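fyi for ur records
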Amino acid sequence: MRARRSVRPVRPVRPAHALAGLLLAAALALTGCSAADDSGGSGAGDSNAAASQADAKEGAPGSGAGGTKASAAPKVTASHIIRTASLTVQVKDVPKALDAARASTENAGGYIGNETTTRDEEGHEDTRVVLRVPVEKYEQVLADLEGTGKLLDRNAKAQDVTDQVVDVESRIKSQRASVARIRELMDQATKLSDVVTLEGELSSRQADLEALLAQQASLKDRTGLATITLSLSETPVPKAAEDDEPGFVDALAGGWDAFVTMLRWLAVAFGAVLPFAAVTALLVLLWLRVVRPRLPRRPAPAPATTALGPLPTARPAPEPTRGEQPGGRE
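which gave:
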């Protein structure tokens, strides 16, 4: 059997009660909003305080530790300079001076590079040697080498490559990270095509990394060791002639030199023309002696004729005999 529900009759709502209910609901709503604002502000303040405490513990900027780090002076980067020098020294004994230079270099912690020795016609030796010495002992070794003899020439250079060294180091760091990422991708790859592509990319990046490492090693060697090129010579250097005003003797010597030079050039010109002149003279002689006599002679011209007959030819006059004079007189 079903239980019967009792139905209460609905009472009509009075206007006064309805108005009181609306006012109560509005008051509760306003109270809730103000409480929410107070709780939100207190929560934000608590979170900001917690963040400030965390920053202070971790030394974030704005705290005491962070301010100390910000005010500290930045670290100065060490300079990298390539130093080179060349010396020319005149000595009395080249082997002895070379031994002294070798001893000075080895005592400074360096070593001997290339070495070339020549000897001229008069028996004087000339030696050219390349020395590599630590940068710290560079000036000391230069002073020792200059003291081995008479200094004729010195040339020193310094090239700052700090920016290049820093750039190479940064590129090496980035390239190593790139190689590491490629290797991680290779470990995660499942397709053969992906593995082949990643292997090619890894090989290319490793080659670039090795080139950067070689460049870094070269810079380290050139900045860590200075290069000194030493030339030792036994040949005396001729003294420069004094620049005096020219005199009569100098003018006479200059004129004689010009005259001799002119004669030399005339002789050269005559020697150049002589073969052609000889051939021309030979051809003229052959023409006169051989060819011309064999040529046919032209016939004698015919005597002139007139209506009365040929003109008489003139006879040569008889030669006078001995004892007779021209005109028939004796």
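Residues 287 and 293 are 9 Å apart (CA to CA). thats all i got for now
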